[in-house]
Amino acid sequence: MALSRELPRPFPDWVYRSLRAIAHVINRSYWRVTVQGPPVPASGAVVLAPVHRSFIDFFVVSEVTRRKLFYMTKEEMWSSHLLGRFLDSTGAIPVHREGADRQSVARSQAVLDQGQVLVLFPEGTRRSGDSVVDLHEGAAFLATRTGAPIVPVGIAGTSESQPLGTKLPRPVKVRIVLGEPLMPPARTEGGRTPRRVIRELNEQLRSELQRVYDQARSSL
C-alpha cells in the first residue's frame, strides 16, 4: 500500500491565529512561561525536540516560535472522533508507538519537505526524573532525511504543574530553554545515511537535551 504524504488539514489561518493567541495568554498568565536561548529559525524546515514530563508540554512549547506548528502525537488521542477531528485540524500527526510507523514518518517528512516546523518528543512518551535517556531515533532520522536542523528544547516546571496521574494542571512557573540548532550531516550521493550517523546525531541530541533541561530546572 502506498504511503500518504498528505499534510494534515489545519484550521483557516485566522482560526489558528486565534487559538495561538488564547494559548499565549494562558501560557504567560497561568504558567508564567519564559523562554531563553537562541531563536528558532524564522524560515525553513525545523524539528523541535522537547523533553516530555507532562501533557501540558504540548501546550507551552508553542511559546518558542510564532510559526505554524505540526505535532507528532500518540494515536490513542484519536480514540474520540470529535477530538480526533480537532487534532487533524490543528496539524497533529498520529503515531503508532509500538514499532515502526511508516505512515507517520512519511507525513512528518512531508511537513519538513515543505519547510514547516515539526514538534517531535524524542523520549516518545512522558518520562519522570531529571535524566534524559533512551531517545527514539525519529528526530535524528527525519533530520538526516530532510536536512532540517533539530532544536533541543528543555522544559521545566510542567511536571510540578501536572504530574502523571493528575487531571488538572496547577499554576506554577514554567521555564523553557532552547539549545543551538543541531545540523545533520550532509547526505551521501546515494541518498542513504548510515545508521552510525543517525545514532551519533541522536546521542548529540540527548546530550544537548540534558544540558538545556538542567539549565531550565536551575532557572526556576
Topology:
Layout (H helix, E strand, L loop, with lengths): L12 H17 L4 E3 L9 E5 L6 H4 L8 E6 L6 H9 L2 E4 L6 H12 L3 E3 L18 H9 L3 E7 L1 H4 L13 E4 L16 H24 L2
Parallel strand pairs: 1-7, 2-5, 2-6, 3-4, 3-5
Antiparallel strand pairs: 6-7
Helix pairs in contact: 4-5, 5-7
Strand content: 5-15%
CATH topology: Glycerol-3-phosphate (1)-acyltransferase
CATH H-tier superfamily? Glycerol-3-phosphate (1)-acyltransferase
If strands are numbered along the chain, what order do they take across the biggest sheet?
Answer: 1-7-6-2-5-3-4
Low-confidence stretches: none
* SSE topology string: HEEHEHEHEHEHEH
Mean pLDDT rating: 87
Care to count the β-strands? 7
Describe this protein's structure:
By secondary structure, the protein is of the alpha/beta class. The protein has a single domain (13-218), classed as Glycerol-3-phosphate (1)-acyltransferase. 36% of the residues lie in helices and 15% in strands. The protein contains 7 helices and 7 strands. The chain has helices spanning 13-29, 57-60, 81-89, 102-113, 138-146, 158-161, 195-218; strands spanning 34-36, 46-50, 69-74, 92-95, 117-119, 150-156, 175-178. A 7-stranded mixed beta sheet has the order 1-7-6-2-5-3-4. Strand 3 (69-74), helix 3 and strand 4 (92-95) form a beta-alpha-beta unit. The longest helix is centred in the last third of the chain and has 24 residues, at 195-218. It is globular, with a radius of gyration of 17 Å.
